Every structure is written in structure tokens, then in C-alpha cells.
Amino acid sequence: MTISSLTRRSVVTTAAAALFTTGSGLLVPARAKGLAPTPTMRGGSNNYRPGAPIVARIGGGGFWMTGTVRRAEDGAPLEGQRIQIWAHTTEGHERDWHSHGATLTDANGEFRLEMPQIVPAFGQAHGHLAYDGDAFKTVFLRPVMGSSRDTSLRADFVLQPV
Amino acid sequence: MPRPRAVLIWIAVATALLVPFGFAVSSPLLQWRDPVYIGSGIAGVMAMGLLLMQPLLVGGYLPGFKGISGRRLHRGVGALLVGLVIIHVAGLWMTSPPDVIDALLFMSPTPFSIWGVIAMWAVFAAALIGALRHRMGQRLRLWRVLHTSFVSIIAIGTALHVLQIDGTMEPISKALLTALVLGVLMRVIFDRRIWVHFPLVRRK
User: Fold this and answer.
1) Is the bond leading into A77 cis (omega within 30 degrees of zero)?
2) Using one digit for the tens of pLDDT, what is the confidence trace for B41-69?
3) Which chain B residues contact residue A120 at CB under 8 A?
4) Looking at domain A63-159, which CATH architecture does it have?
């Protein structure tokens, strides 16, 4: 048998918990088809260089960084978004200016930039990408290659309007 | 100890240290790294080799370095280990400051960096109480349990650090060296029966 006891303590804690969950924004209405924005990855912004120029290719090329940029909620492809790309490659360290370059997305929201082969550095073969425009919230990604012999790497952005 | 056996032990130890080191310094990754990054990595590989020397020396397993001479060299190698860890971290800092700051703040995306930082603090702690041993007075059993605890954190932290890294060390020789470091440490812990003297503080 259970005894239902309505003590002062239980009333106060229940009221406080209810107030906290409703007031803090933890309860949000379910959004059926909402595409969630991509969160920034840990370490994604390391060695980022604000204003790296748009280039046809980073260095000698041979490796492809690809991906898409879409809008949160409806998933619409975003054209003309500037994505900065950098990595430790066969031609330089992550911190080097010449290891950085930017490109723009096409009408389908896709981007594709040729760069030197990424090689393992700081324990992992990984790349860095940044969206840092004005229309959407800034996102930094740090995708890791499945194998250090891969010759391409993909990273997709879902951006949230500011 | 008969001479051939002593020679064989030293050849085995030298092989265990030099083979992984040889692979690391001939890694293809080095051609795409600047001298500071290369030096930093080599300091790390050497430090890991010293982790094998330390239990061998203090356990008296090395011919020519039994008893007091082994323990004296153990202290010198410990100081060298501290220096190599500092060179390793400083070199990485110069190569990519934000990555090292992330690691030191335990905010790194890579778990092996966090294990490396844990092992680094354990190296400093083990060396510090090593230097303070004479101040522990009668409580040498407590001292030994403390030192061994930090050393165990070093060995386990280093194992988790190196095994997950895609770096200059060759995977098989790296795994074997890791197994040796853990194995010899366990051997000396069992041989010296570190745990049997509880309660830790000597009774009056």
C-alpha cells in the first residue's frame, strides 16, 4: 500500500521543479520536420584565420574537401555561402596562412575545394571548416578522416539564421 | 649473474627501446613537419622509452645497476623524464597553441590528449614526491604507495595516450613497448609487494 503524503516539502519542490522546467525553456514544442542546425565541434576553430581569401585551389591540390550548406528548419540549400577550409597537409602546418583558403557554395548549396593531401597531425588526420558570414550563426567543424590514406573528406553544414 | 645472461638482458632492453624509436624517427610523417614539431614528437617517444627503464632500474632487474646504483640512476632518469615531458608539451604548444590549450583545459576533441595531460601531471607529482622522499621521515611505506600510485597513473595514462594516436610511432612496435611498460611495472609492484604493509602509517 502506498501512502500519498502531501507535505510542505513535496509541494515546494514540485512547484519549484515545475517552475524551472517551464520557465527555463527546457520544454519546447515538438517540431515535426525541423532540420536541426549543425553544432560547432570541439577544437573546430583552432588555427582559424579570419578573412582567408577565396581561392581556386589551396596549394598544389590532389585532395578534395566537399560538403553542403543548408538552412535549418526547412533544409533549403544556401547559395553563395563562404566556407573557410584549412588543415595540416603535405604542404604546411595548420597555422600557416598558405594552408588556408575559402570557397563559395553553388546553387545547390554544395562546395568543393581542392587542397594538398591532409596528413595526420596532433594524433589524427583531420580537417577544419568554418562558416563565418553575417546571415547565419558561426559554425566550426573538425571532421576526422576514416583513414589517413583517404583523398577526400566531407563536411555538411546546417546553418541557423542570426 | 653470469656474463652471457647479463649481456642478453641488456640486448633485450636495448632492442625494446631502439626498435620503436628507429621506426618513429624514420616515419614518413616527418617530411611534412617542421623541426620543432619533430623534436617535440621525438621527446615524447623518448619519454615513453624511459617509462620502461624506470621500473627496471628501481626493481634491480638490470645487470650492473642493482640496489643503490639502480636507484640513483632511477632518480636521474626521472629528472630526464620530467624534462622530456616539458619539451614534448612546449614543442606542441609552439606548433599549434590552441590545440595544446584545449588539451591542458581538458576540452580537447581527442581523448588521447586528455590522457596525455593526466599522465603529464602524474609525472610531475611522482617526481615531486620522489624529490621529497627524505622529508617523509618514517613513513616510507606510505611514500612508496603514493609514488607507485602516481606511476601507475603515468603508465595507464600513457598507454591510452599513445595507442589512440595516429602519429610517427609504428603501431605494432608501439603496442609492444606499451605492453612492456605495463608488464614490467606490474612485475615490480608484485615483486616489492607494495600493497602488503597496510596500515600505511607505521605503528608506534
Assistant:
1) no
2) 999 999 999 999 999 999 999 999 988 99
3) 29, 166-167
4) Sandwich (2.60)
